[in-house]
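Ticket #4471: structure export looks truncated?
Reporter: QA, pipeline team
Priority: medium

Steps to reproduce: submit the single chain below to the structure queue and open the exported record.
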Amino acid sequence: MRAVVWEKIPWLVACATLSFYFIQRWSLNAWVYPSFDGIFPAAREIATAFDVLACVVMIAIVLNGRRPALVISIVHCSAPFVLLLALVLFFVGVKGSAPALLAVGAVLCSGAGFWFFVSASASLLPFDLKKSLLAVAVAAIAQSLFGSIASLFSVGLACGYAWHAAMALACLALGWRAVGKVSCRVQERLWNKSDIFVNPRSFIPASHPLFVSVVLSGTLCGVGLTYGSDASAPVQTPLALVPLLIILGIALMCVKRSRALDALYLSAVVAFLAALTFFSPVLLTSIDLPLVSQLPNHLFNVGANCLLVLALLTASTVGRRNPADFFRIAVLYAGCICLGILIGATAGHLLNSLVPRHLEVVIWAFALMAVVFVCYNLILMRAFSFDDVVAKVERVRAPSIVAPSESFDERCQDVACAFGLTPRETEILQYYARGRSTTVVQEALVLSYNTVKTHVKNIYRKMDVHSQQELIDLVDGWKIS
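Actual output as written to the record:
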């Protein structure tokens, strides 16, 4: 009995980490950001914009830095202190009506903002998709209960900030060990930026629809968060929990068919389209019932929750298949969500200012968003599958280094002749077929990184291989004609 309970402790820790992550997101939008209203509301957009910038900088450091693990460890250890300093600046800025302090606090807050997503997704790495979905369901229920109870009380400024700090620090504390393991993987230097094109089946590029779809959907989330908001506070309700739990149940049933991620994305698409569809009737009719008048916002909340769950599960699933790429994927997802919300929030604020006098412009704007979103999903995403993309991700394996020999050189020359490689491509083939790295090729042939990248892509295309190991295997088993 004790052994069974002990085995469940990591899963319970993951549930708690996700719960605190969801609650700190809720408290940030319910208690912290609304306090900026009347002083410096733009601080919220500044924080989101610098969130995107922080994610870009972290990815650049991981890909190009000499000691990325050190930088990750520094950010990992300093995130709690940066968060507390940002909240102190927020509190003093609100009390003293100082926009400059709010702006500085927003910049500092962004330095730790994406780390919550990394901590939450890292906590799911040890578990399969089914257990991860169950953990998300438990966390969603916990967040809904917390929000419902908190709405019964009048929460002051200091109390709201203290609760948010406690939830955020708890999320970082519980995810501390999981993120520490991610830092160790980066320390091992299992890969470098050249592996992204040398082993394309192991790494998903940033321009992939997997991320573009999140940016586009995140834009609608941003519109839903800000349009119709009261004192910069998004319309939030526990009713969003019911459809989310139904969707998670559907996703659980789709796990056996390997379509859980697709079910989540399809649910988000349906929720967003329903929200865009109901906006016009709600605007054109004067209905005093809050449930009806706020229906589009509730649907946006459902879609936003589905999108967040999809990002968490996709990042953790890719991380399980290729641990070397987890940190990049997690930070990239966090940045894509923030970028989409930033674009959508800007549009939402603009629409809020147009509602009293230019209602027809707002209606046309929502109609245009619906058309663009439908066209994107019906045309570009029609044959796309999140589950299939994730399932094809391969673990990076260090290629075996082959000692140069006369027979080996003859095989390389014969392979190059058979596949029509150019003399320069043949030279590069000989290095990669021996298991050498891109850095060795650059130094030996005095070529730039981009030049080697172009030649490798041409070699892979001509030889119909998709990784360095496949190339090694092909040359190794080649029979000289």
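Status: closed, not a bug. The export was complete when the record was re-opened. Leaving a note from the reviewer for reference: Residues 1-6 have pLDDT under 50 and may be disordered.
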